[in-house]
Design goal:
4 helices, YneQ
Length: 105
């Protein structure tokens, strides 16, 4: 279940993905398969070769790309999620969704 983002944020992410850009969208997320994980960052790109290269460049397996019709993406969680958000300068997403639980909010 995804929550914590608005329609405008989702629309911007979708538009970037459709243009073949590497796009990041972080939101709150709960899945019983991943206890303790409360957020996910969807790294999307309609150019599957570019998305696969992004995975490899970040030490991730392209085998885990979700091949969704117009919005293929890789789900980032845990420490790798925080590492990549920080490196990409996406501090708003990092503080809003990932580090929030560590600051007692």
């Amino acid at each position: 279940m995804a929550f914590g983002i608005n329609r405008q944020e989702l629309s911007r992410w979708k538009a970037s993905v459709e243009r073949g850009e590497i796009a990041y969208l972080t939101h709150f997320w709960l899945d019983p398969r991943f206890p303790g994980i409360t957020s996910v960052t969807k790294v999307g790109c309609s150019d599957l070769d570019r998305l696969a290269r992004w995975c490899l460049d970040n030490g991730l397996s392209p085998d885990y790309i979700h091949h969704r019709d117009r919005y293929p993406h890789f789900d980032l969680i845990g420490s790798k999620q925080a590492e990549i958000l920080r490196r990409e300068g996406l501090l708003d997403q990092l503080h809003r969704f990932v580090e929030r639980k560590n600051h007692g909010q």
